[in-house]
Every structure is written in structure tokens, then in C-alpha cells.
Amino acid sequence: MSGRARKAVDPLAAVTEALERGLPVRLDLPRRGRLHLDRPLPFLAVHVNRRSAPAARAATMANAAYLLAGNLSDAAAIVRLVGERMREEFGAFLVLDFGELARDQLAADTPYLAPFEISVSASPDVAAERAQSAFVGAVEKIDGRYRAPRIARPTLAEDPHAGLARRLPDIPTLTVRVAPIYRVPTSRAVYPELQGRLVARLVDAGLRAAGQFARSETALAPATHRALGRRVFVEAVARADRAMDDIAASFDFLLAVTPINADAAFEAFRAAGCERAPTFLYRPLAIEIAARKKALFSIALDRFEDPVLERLYGEKQQELDLQLSMLAAREDARFVEMSRALYGSVDGRLAKVAVDILEATAKPGRKAAPQEVDHRYVERRARAMIDRYSAQFSAFAPSVEVRNDLPPGLMVSSDRLLIARTTTMARERVEALLSHEVGVHLLTYCNGSGHGLRLFRSGLAGYEGAQEGLAVLAEYLVGGMTTARLRLIAARVVACAAMLGGAGFVETYRLLASEHGFTPPAAFNIALRLHRGGGLAKDAVYLRGLLEILAHLRGGGDLEPFWLGKIAARHFAVMQELSLRGLLKAPRLTPQFMTAKGADERLARLRAGLSPLDLIA
């Protein structure tokens, strides 16, 4: 069918046919109109496209049930059709009519930020008035850092904008009009951040009104108003997700900034009397930075119809941009400052905790030398642990690679566990470290792959802190947190603070070896990790993340949302909302360390309140 033929179709007939086919419905209508219903809901957000009102249009389209109509007549007719269908299911139906005022009349050239107008009228019935109160209560909390709202509550008869409500006398309706405060005065330009904030608050207020209406007028009892949000993401989200993941997968940031000559560099450093900074060699970059950046910022995020997802992808876009900039500045003085921006500085509280750990463990008691194992044993145990998880979910099949081009230790890259051939460790530490790498990093990659969006497996922006905090927690829950391990985590923080403060490689090494008693190989490896690429501040996130997780547990927080994918602690509420909306699936795998012998008792102690020093086995 041609485009002209589609436009000639009677919109009411098309809506009727779509509703008869069943939900979900996504139907384009004349004059840039659309009906979107991702599931049955007792409300419909409506915007009539009579003039440019991008904030109101975006707020409408962010809902799970919305209508964009070209005129009031079409809007009223379509609302009646949808309303009849929803009242059959829920017994009641609410309309949220979003629009914008023609001008920002309260704006003035004053030395203070003037308020802005929001008009909210309601149909003359108790259900609509309750929804109106919920809406007003929400918009009154709009962030006043820019301008605070001044709310008008005209009656239906007094409201000149309530044309749709007057055409729907038997349907409870809220008529919302907001001043276009996001527009730059005397210009066609807009303040994009302010527009985004306004849209997000209008969406939240609308959902609060719908939640109040649902609880009082229907049998629907949402756990929270945000559970009424979008359950299905549109194709624009899927396209952006694929494009962004393709860029993220085109380079491995940590491998790209990790030296390939760690052993030779240590021997040269030791031969020079530990007085000359080593020369590190890196893998050649297999990407063209400018081309990747161009592709990154060609990804459109403005058609998501979901402010929450738009914000998450915007944050990831900025993080990838910063990582690409760091790769372009590898071994340059700019690298360390961009690293500070990516991973944060070491604040006074974090530094004090690290120093306290090192001082409290400076003279450990005599213990028998632990039995050492090499990479072969670690590889066998890793494959055994992966097999146990595969028995829980058969598609869990990460690869295990023994590498010659890594410093001693383990690391995870996507769905690969990388083991350096030079790795040796105490046998008692193997299960703990594998719980860290397999039970957290690989598990959350697998679980994050199960939501239909790759972002949750590659990681939300800033996820490393929570990930590493959880991974260290896993070591404790299996009884594998040793004094040496905690000292290592603390030393990374102290050395990171020194590096960010301007200390060179030799100075960092001396701090670790002379002042804190680390062996030459251990001190060198810590200093290497911190000075790689030109100065990488990542290693402070282990202790910082652990402190965040300890505080979360002490406050009664749950760990379950963290297993959904790779998320930051600040995304906890967002993940809960997306789960309530049904956008996220239940975890495919649950960490086996949560059911390890003694894990319940250890977790109970964590909830009662423990410091990092209390975690030592």
C-alpha cells in the first residue's frame, strides 16, 4: 500500500481494527498522529498537534498508552474508542491531556528566577479531582534550581484549554498546560537540559495521577506509579542499542591500556636498581578514533519515547566518548586527567579508610607459607566453576584463555576469562578470586544479555564501582578475604591517590615497597596497574565500591537488582523501576557464592554493619 493510500484510511476505522486485533497497538495516524498502547491500562496520555510543543509531545509519548492527534475532533473520537475498550477491562478510564501555553508569561528580566506557570484542571468528578491532587503534588516538587512552578487549578468551565475534556463529559480528564520555559527568549533555540528535566517531571506527575486513579477506581494495584510506565521499548531504542554496542565491542579499553611486556619491564626495572621508570609496550589500536567518535554521536537518542532509557544511553555515550579520548591520549599527559574524570578522584574519606587498613595490618601474625598454585590449576578450577553455572543455565558458556601478554592475574573481557600465564597465587585464594571474576563479572554479563538490550551486559555508565564492590564482597562470602588481599585493595587506593597527586612510577613503587612493605613484584604490579596508559585511576574503585555495597547492606538494601546486569549503585532505583515496568527479565543465573557454606551468617553480619577490616577471614 502506498503512503498516500495509508493516509486516506479513515483513522477511526483503523483504530477500531487495531483494537479488535488486540494489544499491543502502534498505529500511525494523519497529521503526525499516532496511537500507542503497549498493554491494557486504565489511562491514556493525549497531545493534540496544533502547534509546536515539543516538551508536551515528548511527555505524552513517554507513556505506555498515548495518543497524538491532529485535531480535537479526531482526538475525542479515538479516546472514546480506546476508553470503551479499557472500561470493559478496568471499569474506569482516565485521560491526561498534555499541552503547552503559548507564552512563558511569568518570565521577566529580574535579578531572581521567576516562577513558571502550570495549569491543571480536572473534570468535575471525584476521581479526576483525586488524580489532579496527585499530579499537583508531584509537580510542586519540580527541581527549583532553574525556576519553580506556580500552579493554577482552574475549573473546567474556566479553563480555555480544556476543549478535549468538554468533548468527553463522561470520561475523567486532566488538562495540563505548561509554560514553555525551555525556550531561549527571543530565539527559536531551546535549553535541552531544562527541556529534558521538564519532560521527566511531567511524565512522573502523570504517572502519579494515573496511579492514584488506578488504585481508587480500578482493581489494578501497582506497587508504585512507575510500574505503569513503558513495558516495551520502541525500535529506535533497539537500533541505538545495537549501534552503541557495536562501538563498545570494537575496542577493549582495559586491554588497550594494559602493557604487553610486564615481565620484561619488571626485569629491566629491577636491573636498573628500581631507580628508572620502566618502558611499557601496548597493543596497537585496531580502530580509528575519529571514525568511532563520529559513529558514536550519529546515534540518535531523541526518538526513544522513554526518558529513563534516553538518560541511560546518553550517559553511556559520554562514557564511551571519554574512553575513546583516553585511547587517543595513551601515554600522553592528558590521559591521567581524563582518567580522573572517568573514575573519580580519591577523596579524604576513602584515603583514610585505605591508610587505616594498611596501618592495622602492617604487622601480620606469623602464618605458614600458603601452598602456591599456577595458571594451570586456576584454569581447571575456573572451568569447573563455569560448568556449575552452565548446569544452572546451559547458554552460559564463557571462554577461558591463558595469555602471554598480560601481567600476573585474571581479568574479564566481555564473555572471556583471561588468565595470565605468569599467574601464581595461594591455593586458598582461588575459589574466592573465581567467585569475583566468574560469579560477578561473567554472571552479570550473561544476565545482562537477557533483557533484549545489550547495554545491560556491556555495562551502564560508571558500573565498575558497584561491580568491583560486589566482586570483593563475593570473596568475603565464600570465606576467602585474607589480610593480604585487603592490604592489596587498600594499597591500590593509597597508590592511586599518590599517582593522581603527581607521583611518578618510581615514587609510587617506593611508597608501596618501602613505606608499606610490599614485595618488589607486588609493588611493581600495583604501580604498573596505576601508571598504565599514562595514569589509570580505576584501581581505587575496588575499595570505593566495597564501601558503597557495605553501606547499601547496612541500610537494609537488597542485592538482587545488582545481578540483573552491570549497573552502578546510582542506577539501583532505575533498575527497580525497569523491573517493575516489566522491561527487565528475571536473572538467568544467581551467584553460587550467595549459598556457599557460611554465606548466610556472613551476610547477616554485613547487614548488622561491618567495616572492611572486619571482613578478614
TrEMBL record:
The answer to whether the entry has keyword ATP-binding is no
Membrane-spanning ranges? none
Task: Name any Gene Ontology BP term.
Answer: regulation of nitric oxide metabolic process
State the name under which the record lists this protein: Uncharacterized protein (TIGR02421 family)
Q: Which UniProt keywords apply?
A: Hydrolase, Metalloprotease, Protease
This entry's Gene Ontology molecular function terms read: metallopeptidase activity
Write down the PANTHER family for this protein, in alphabetical order. CHROMOSOME UNDETERMINED SCAFFOLD_67, WHOLE GENOME SHOTGUN SEQUENCE, PTHR31817
What is the top-level taxon of the source organism?
Bacteria
Cofactor(s) needed: Zn(2+)
Keyword check for Transferase = no
Q: Please report the organism this UniProt entry assigns to the protein.
A: Shinella granuli
